[in-house]
Amino acid sequence: MSDPVLRCFPFGGVGEFGKNMMVYAIDDDAVIVVCGMGFPEPGQHGVDVVVPDISALHELGLNIHAILITHGHEDHIGGLPHLLPQLNLPVYATEVTRALIKAKMDERGYKTDLRILPDHAEGIDVGPFKVEGVAVTHSIMDAVSVAIHTVLGVIIHTGDFKFDPSPVDGRSSDIARFAQLGDQGVVLLASDSTNATHAGSGPSESVVGPAMRQAISQCKGKVVVTTFASNMLRIQQIIDAAVANGRKVAVAGRSLERNLNIARGLNRLKVGADVLVDIKQCDHIADKDLLIIATGSQGESRAALARLAHGRFRGVTIGVGDLVIFSSSNIPGNERVIAGLYNHIYRRGARVMHARQAPLHVSGHAQGHELKMMMQLTRPKYFYAVHGEYRNLIEHRDLALSVGIPFERTVMAENGHSVEADHESIKLGAEFHAGAVFVDGEVRDEVDGIVLRDRRVLADDGMISATVLISQHEGTLLGEPELVARGVLHQDVSEDVLADAAAALRQFLNQMDQEIIADVDVTKEEVRLFVRRWCKKHIGRRPMVLPVVLAI
Fold it and tell me: What is the architecture, at CATH level 2, of domain 462-551?
């Protein structure tokens, strides 16, 4: 009988930020760890979210037993509504994470087999594995690392974590359990690389509260605080700071309301009955007595903060004397949008405060010293840097080398490149397809490469519609072709230019065989190609051409 082999299949989140998804297998038995989503890149027009392409899963020949979830952030659970119907697997998660997933799936009317992932050493049996969650601190409640006990040793998938010495809810990272697992024998540590480029240790979440109280105390008008809707630990501190300053709290944003109700329902958020007021009924409260927690810290155009900044939030306005606090970090790529939001807030007379002015936000991800501490506690046989762009993975591997993990016992494998390990070594395995599915709309509606290409053309070069009237019986052109431009620069396609193009198209069609003209589909394609080539030759652009052939 051959020795067992550990295989890892990164479907997302390795070599990139977002849409995290990893498959761990011992021979043919496997589990999936997290199933997240990402956000579209510039040029992916009309795409709402991006989820892992799991089409290669059936080719791997694995017996997958469950999906294990580390915590409830969208980049770790956001893919479930789109992919779980295909997978039809039980999902294991801790209490708060389970409630967040249930709410997300219920919104789409999908019944889910949700089970509790215990964060204690006894664990549970999942197929041939024993699985446990190991408590870690992060910027969301109930985060865990996943420990998978196998015949080769323990696989630890850290998920997002940090070592916070004074967590707001008193739930610390379970350092002792990580050390115990190290004693038992960790075969693989797959660790979060998000902040591997930052030295030292990050500040505690508890520093935010005092800074928040001080900032609020200096404001004579209303205060609006925006943060990530899932960060209930931060929201607890915001509410406490409001109460300390004698203010009522209103919540603006559907996702924020949902998450707050979930946390209160689980008795994980402490809010006095007289503190919260309905955002629709707060017009009778004096500005100096009101604090609003709003969604939209990343500048999302339809979120509550953007509507407030543009004066489009019914019943609530911001103005002179008001303060807007950004208790969040900028997700890379959103800087320009957020800066624009600042400008709109200032135009309304309000002021802005953010984390570069005071400790109003701290990261939930481990920095260099904490990452090395995780390695020293678990003492893994093999090390695999995950969750981050390539530069983060390299920096994280260098940290592993600095604590004495031999180079040959580390591995660099991005999405689509498997990893194989046994008692003797770890190495790159076979490549597999690990692309992305672009989702447009609330329901799963895949946007393929052709659609994205067309959307880029529309965004870059615009569109020209060409309407042609033909006699199908005679195979002849009737009247003049009509060309209309949309989204094309006026100097490129003035009325004279369009008239020249229409005349050239008429001449071209008049030279075609009657038999071809009589075929509507063929004529459409000929019109499309002619107008596109004419535009490239005469105006140097390739707009999308929409041919309309009307046959009489």
Answer: Roll (3.10)
The structure tokens 């008193």 sit at 170
DSSP SS3 for 117 = coil
Residue ranges per structural domain of the chain: 6-201+363-447, 205-353, 462-551
How does pLDDT run across 232-283, given as a tens digit for each residue?
A: 999 999 999 999 999 999 999 999 999 999 999 999 999 988 999 999 989 8
How many residues comprise the chain?
552
Angle CA 408–411–414, to nearest 5 = 160
**CB 300, CB 234: distance < 8 Å:** no
The encoded tokens of residue 53 equal 């392409």
Q: Judging by DSSP bridges, how do beta strands 248-252 and 223-226 pair with one another?
A: unpaired
Contact 21, 38 (CB under 8 A): no
> Terminus-to-terminus CA distance in the chain, angstroms?
76
Is residue 145 within a helix (H) or strand (E), and if so which, with residue range? strand 144-150
248, 285 contact by CB (below 8 A): yes
- Residues 406 and 383: their CA atoms lie apart, in Å, by 9
CA 113, 114, 115, 119 torsion-angle sign: positive
pTM: 0.81
Non-local (6+) Cβ contacts of 233 within 8 A are 139, 140, 141, 167, 168, 169, 205
Structure tokens at 130: 């024993």
Enclosing H/E stretch for 263 = helix 254-265
Mean per-residue pLDDT over the chain, rounded: 90
> What is the CATH class of 6-201+363-447?
alpha beta
Q: Are 370 and 203 spatial neighbours (Cβ–Cβ below 8 Å)?
A: no
One DSSP character per residue, 125-138 reads EETTEEEEEEE-B-
C-alpha pair distances (Å), 69 with each of 112, 133, 392: 14, 9, 22
If one looks up domain 205-353 in CATH, what number appears? 3.40.50.10710
Note whether 9 and 23 are within 8 A (CB).
yes
In this structure, which amino acid lies at residue 105? M
- Strand-pair partners of 386: 192
Q: What percent of the chain has pLDDT over 90?
A: 71
Q: Is the pLDDT of residue 390 over 80?
A: yes
Q: Which two tokens stand for residue 332?
A: 């890379």
Residue 393 tokens read as 């993975």
Type of residue at 366? A
Q: What phi, psi does 69 have (nearest 5°)? A: -115, 135
